[in-house]
Amino acid sequence: MKLTIIIPVYNEAAHINELLFYLKNNLKQPTNTHILVVDGGSTDNTPQLVKNNFSSDNNITLLNSPKGRGAQMNFGAKHAKGEILYFLHADSYPPPFFDQLIYNEISKKNLAGCFKMKFDHTHWWLRLAGWFTQFNLKFFRGGDQSLFIQKELFNQLGGFPELHPIFEDFSLIRKLYKQNEFVVIQQSITSSSRRYTENGIAKLQYHYWMMYLKKWCGVPTDRLVIYYKKNVR
Description:
It is a single chain. By secondary structure, the chain is of the alpha/beta class. Helices cover 42% and strands 20% of the residues. The protein has two domains: 3-192, Spore Coat Polysaccharide Biosynthesis Protein SpsA, Chain A, CATH 3.90.550; 195-233, no CATH class. The protein has helices at 16-25, 46-54, 69-79, 98-107, 124-132, 151-156, 170-178, 194-199, 201-216, 221-231; strands at 3-9, 33-39, 60-64, 84-87, 92-93, 112-119, 147-150, 183-191. It has an eight-stranded mixed β-sheet with strand order 3-2-1-4-7-6-8-5, with helices on both faces. Strand 1, helix 1 and strand 2 (33-39) form a beta-alpha-beta unit. Helix 9 (201-216) packs antiparallel against helix 10 (221-231).
């Protein structure tokens, strides 16, 4: 059994090298793991950094894809050779030996799931928000927690939606919960708090809550994109 890590990137020059070195140093079974860095047309030197530092590493491959996180992750999945897919943000760091933790769940017939999460910040609200992610409820799920899924199951469910630049994880995770096919591994992935510190923690959390509430109430995604661009970006 092999694992393919899929990392969608766009202008991640500040993070990509550190993440790739971290992943290589924290794998239990490195020969069973292939990393796909899927670039969506970066205008900084993200692709060049990957080429310069990892071109001789047969377990790391740089792919070029149309821009959009959903499209990039689907593109990576199409090129994945592993039976297990692991989707990871470029500024999130899974726990040591995360690959073995995923294999352990797969061996128990848990075919999809994520890690609980903590932020790289000590603010009380971010610590509380991370604490809630230990519970296996779809309301507490998000892309920052990463996602592992059996490739066959991923294909059966149709992958990620590609039409909109937000909530690309929402549709797939909702399908997994409907099938009772989701587990939360009780070790923490560490996620960047940069968007919170740039926008203001209370302000950004309010807008995230409003977006989730609107989504659960059936507001069309194109209207949520307008809200996101106005209040978050």
